[in-house]
Amino acid sequence: MAVIQELKGIGNSIAALLEKLHIFTTDDLLFHLPRDYEDRSTVVAMNQIQVGRTYLLEGTVKSVDFPTGKRKSMAVLLEDEFGHVTLRFYHFYKGLIDRLAVGEHVRVFGEVRVGARGLELYHPEILPIATLSKTQLTAIYPTTEGLTQSKFRDYIEQAFNQYAHNLPELLPKQFTNGYALKDALNYIHHPPLNAHMQQLLQGQHPAQQRLIFEELVAHQISLLSRRAYIQNMPSPRIHPSESFLNTFLQRLSFVPTQAQQRVSKEILNDLQQPKPMLRLVQGDVGAGKTVVAAIAACHALESGWQVAIMAPTEILAEQHYINFKKWFEPLGIQVSWLSGKQKGKAREVAQHAVQTGQSQLIVGTHALFQDSVQFAKLGLVIIDEQHRFGVDQRLALRNKGAPHQLVMTATPIPRTLAMSAYGDLDTSTIDELPPGRTPIQTVTIPIERREQVLQRIAEQQGKQAYWVCTLVEQSETLDAQAAEATYEELKTRFTNLNVGLVHGKMKADEKQTVMQAFKENKIQLLVATTVIEVGVDVPNATIMVIENAERLGLSQLHQLRGRVGRGDQASFCILLYKTPLSQNGHERLATLKESNDGFVIAEKDLQIRGPGELLGTKQTGDMGFKVAKLERDEHLLNQAHHVAQQMLKDYPHQAEALLNRWLPQAPRYAYV
Ligand code: ADP
Ligand code: MG
């Protein structure tokens, strides 16, 4: 392997372009795989061509004219004995006009589109009529502006000829589909003419799958070694709580579900081990994760350790703060609040209490991660709604000692994806909702009928509703403005209701006051932005209206919908959408209408959007696959996991080399 500058024709400016594509070394070039292939080997009859594909065609020019439509162009009718196509040029010059004069016999190469005259080729390449000598398909690479396909092919050719034979085999032989690495790369960069094109385009060819598998193994090695590294640290000894737990459960107005009890047991079992717990608790919205977290806190607190609870938004963190204060202060535990917005004296007092151990239970936002926050005796960290935090942040807190980690996510993650994104965590699932919930009824209504929705809300005596405003831009300011405008409108309109407003631009205590008023039914209609997405719990709220629902992703919509249906009354979710709906938008809304099951929705979301969107950019930044696509290659994950375990145990040097090949940037942890 060498740096790309070693290759002919690559100076600093080309190297800079390649770096944009994350290509730094000749290996990176070899692993930069084609996105498509062209067949330049065979002339195709004009009655065999299909829109969207690229062909080599040959024929006689029948006519040439220069229509002046929206834009002046040159239209050349080319005919063979089976049919005809139009060649369309928006830029033309004398040489081209001469070459395509009526009666000329030419060969052209280009993509077929539908134009004003039926099937057309826009600016095809004009090729000499020579004997065809190609024996391979021609690869087309993902590229960037300033780098042509032919240059790309040249660099990859050079890299291949000079460096491919040096690539060591790192994968155990039985997992290579019979392809040595070099042969697999050769096949993918230069498939034979009879290659199964469909299979290649879908990444299903055994040569491709062999590479994909190798990459997945490398990722699993990375996750497993991180896990091993953490689990090798000593961790707080925690004993089962007796008095705290009993008192807590007695004061609770309900009995935990079977699923909550089972997961709590799994957690307690981890806490009693001498190594740090690394556990992910998944549970659909409303499954009751908070109680499970509180039970875990009972054990740690009674054993004399501090517990930190962290949530991604102020609203959610504050809600936890209120709950945990209510539950734990009567047990003689001091509960503290830490947030980024907290300044000056209040902040100092809180940090001091945490540092001296005077306060044992600390609830807050990202602020808990900051260096200035020092814990006296941190035993357990509970992170709610994990997918919003990155792995690195999780590690940052761990570095303040090696406490047990409990991560809770409300977005149920398909199992295989969880294995890849959270391969370093054990998983528990709360797969049962508390009793007495009536399923939420979801309807989709075009925005033109917004008026009817308003009427319907006006008629709902004694019910509480959310009205969520969304915007295209990911801008808190614009979102807030939209919500303010809607708030003014609805306030004027509903004189019989108290209308409230909450959005991300409000001060923490303002938000807090509004949420509290909504909880106490002093507000019946709450206009909000998506800040209420996660975790807010007001059981009496039974109507959720989401404006411009088509703009939000499936999981986000499911989260929002989960704000209702928390009590025993029938609940409704009304998705207002703007027409016309895109195919994708239609699919998303239909999925929500049909299913209330977070797992079904997450699987669908994974198919529609891919894992990056589903988990948030932070997580996928960590994943950064070169050739694998989780939504396509999930079926390989289980085996990749086992092979990774085996390699770490029996072939640590190969495992390390795999990391160097596939994840050169990732942090390294000694595997023990
Ligand atoms: P999530 O899993 O979405 O975080 P919460 O922990 O906020 O859910 O719980 C949702 C609601 O269900 C809360 O009002 C909570 O008090 C209630 N709840 C939790 N567990 C039970 C249970 N076993 N029986 C009845 N209600 C429960
Ligand atoms: Mg929650």
Give an overview of the whole structure:
The protein is α/β, with parallel strands linked by helices and 672 residues long. It has four domains: 4-37 and 145-202, no CATH class; 50-132, OB fold (Dihydrolipoamide Acetyltransferase, E2P), CATH 2.40.50; 243-430, Rossmann fold; 440-595, Rossmann fold, CATH 3.40.50.300. The chain is built from 24 helices and 21 strands. The strands form four sheets. Strands 11-12-10-13-14-9-15 form a seven-stranded parallel β-sheet, with helices on both faces. A six-stranded parallel β-sheet has the order 16-21-20-17-19-18, sandwiched between helices. The longest helix has 26 residues, at 206-231. The chain is globular, with a radius of gyration of 30 Å. The two termini are 29 Å apart. Residues 616-622 have low confidence and may be disordered. Adenosine-5'-diphosphate binds at residues 254, 256-257, 260, 283, 285-291, 410, 434, 535, 537, 539, 566. The site of adenosine-5'-diphosphate (ADP) has 18 residues, from helix 10.
Key phrases:
Rossmann fold; alpha/beta; OB fold (Dihydrolipoamide Acetyltransferase, E2P); single chain; globular; binds adenosine-5'-diphosphate; 24 helices; seven-stranded parallel beta sheet; 672 residues; binds magnesium ion; six-stranded parallel beta sheet; 4 domains
